[in-house]
Structures are given as structure tokens and as C-alpha cells.
Amino acid sequence: MAAKTQKMEQKKEKLRKIGKESKKNILSAMDIRQLRDKILSFSLDDGDLGSQGYTKVLLQLFGYTGHGKSSLINSCKYVLGKGESFKEHAEAEETDHGLTMVRNAYPLTDVITMVDNRGCSKLNDFERAEVYAQLGNFIPIGEKVEWKDNYSAMMEAIEKSELEPNFSDFIVPIFVYNVRKQMSAEEKQDVKTFMENCIKMTGIVPIIVLSFKTSADYLEIEKQFRLMGAETVIAIDNYTKMSHIKTLGRTTDILMVIDIALKNVRFRLELPRNPKRERIERKKFMYNYIHQI
Ligand SMILES: Nc1nc2c(ncn2[C@@H]2O[C@H](COP(=O)(O)OP(=O)(O)O)[C@@H](O)[C@H]2O)c(=O)[nH]1
Ligand SMILES: [Mg+2]
User: Fold this and answer.
1) Which pLDDT does position 224 carry in this prediction?
2) What is the bridge-based pairing of β-strands 233-235 and 56-62?
3) pTM of the predicted model, to two decimals?
């Protein structure tokens, strides 16, 4: 008799647990809808100080070739949509040789745009200058990016950008890194310097996106980035042409990247800002940088 009651109790407990589990899943599904809606309805005017002259959020992607920048754009557009048909907006390349040559912009909403900056396989000083020129928005979108290998060509490019100066974009740097790769000591130094300069130029610590989450030990790489000063590290598995069945975890990870970028924008907009002044500061940084190299 006692055994029977015990069994019944166990069964009840199991049902309770299942009930809790499914409740949790429903909650997560709701969270996703809320998260998506929050992103889709994001406005720069919501803070106490208003938009302060900014009209767009520019999520700028950086990282070495083949690390998943174009795929991240495709993934973001995919998770913000409600259907299951995957479209390749930014061309993702099969091999490491594929280069994104043109600096292309992909709107996610009326306010948020993602920019696929040209990736590179290694960085020399002039290539680094080009990276900062992209970060500072000194290279027009839609224009072919060519590494300038001399001082005057570099200065000329920046002067040219003054013809149509852009200071209404709120820049958020995002650095994409493939966890299957091993970071060399040299690469680590490069990335660290890049992160510090991002803070100087934009006031934002770049968001680190670790791609190929399920292909290697991302926790180890995450640790390395945190030790380098990263504030946010998000590991994701991009949706690709080959693999795009929407799952809760994968979709959540990708939405979190956009969400944390917007949190940064909201935070910075609580402080008084001056877009024109900031562009001048970025330009000063650029000039200094070019002079140094
Ligand atoms: N399995 C997997 N493949 C990925 C992931 N991210 C990118 N890829 C693949 O890696 C290759 C290079 O990606 P791509 O987005 O072109 O890199 P980019 O050069 O930084 O723009 C493509 O074949 C992508 O399909 C990921 O998170 N997981
Ligand atoms: Mg690409």
C-alpha cells in the first residue's frame, strides 16, 4: 500500500516537473517575441535627452576574413523575420579566399543598419588605418575598399569623405571571431589594440561575437577575450544556407547580439553628446594614427 502511494507521489512529482518545463519553454518563446519586438520598435528618441542628433544606429562588423561577418548579417535578418525561408542577403563565402570588397550596408529596421566592413587576413599598419577609417565612417558605404599603402592616399580618402560628412550615425563596433581558429600572440595584440581604439573612437567596447559556437571550445576563447577587456562576449552558431532550421537557443543568441548593441546605444544616449564634435574627435584620432604610422 505504502509502495503504491509512493509510486503515485513520484508520478505526480514527474508531472509537476514536466509542467514546469513546458511553462519555461512557453516563457522562452514569449521572451523571444518580446526581444524581437523590442528590436524592431527601437527608437533613438526614447531616452530623456532624445536622439541628440543621431538618426541611425550603425552596427559595424569587423573581423578577419572567413570568420562569419556576412553570415551574421544573414542570421540577424533571418531571426528578425517570422518565417523559415532563409535568404542570403550578404554573400557568405565558402573558403577563406572570399573577400568582401565593398563596404555594404544592410538595413535591419528603419533605424538599425548593419555594415559588412571589408575583412582582412592579416593587418599591417596601413590596413589597420583602413579599419579605423571604416570604423570612423570615413569611407562611404557602397564604395570599394582598397587598402591604401601610402600616407597621401590615406589622407586624400579622409579629405574626400568631408564632401559628404556623416555624423548622424551612432556607431557600435562588433568584432566577429571564429572559435575554430587559434589566436596567435600577434593576433591577440592586434585585437587588444583594436578594442582600445574602438573605445577611443566610439565610446563603446566592441561586442565580441564568437561564431561556430558548437564547433570548438568557445568558453576558452571567451575567457581570452574577457581577459583582453571585452565586456560582452556572445557565442553563436550562424544560420547558413546549409543549416537554417530555427531553434530557440540559436535564435536567442543572435537576437542577444542586436539587443546588447542597442543597450549600449541607450546607455551612451543618457549622457549628453554632440555628434558633430564626436566626428571631429574621430577625425583627430585618424590623423594622429596616420601620422604615427
Ligand atoms: N557552421 C557554421 N558555419 C559558419 C558560421 N559562420 C559562418 N559560417 C560559414 O563560414 C564561411 C565563411 O563565412 P562568411 O560569413 O563568409 O565570413 P566573412 O568573410 O567574415 O564574411 C561560410 O561558408 C559560412 O557559411 C557558424 O557560426 N557556424
Ligand atoms: Mg563577408
Assistant:
1) 95
2) unpaired
3) 0.85
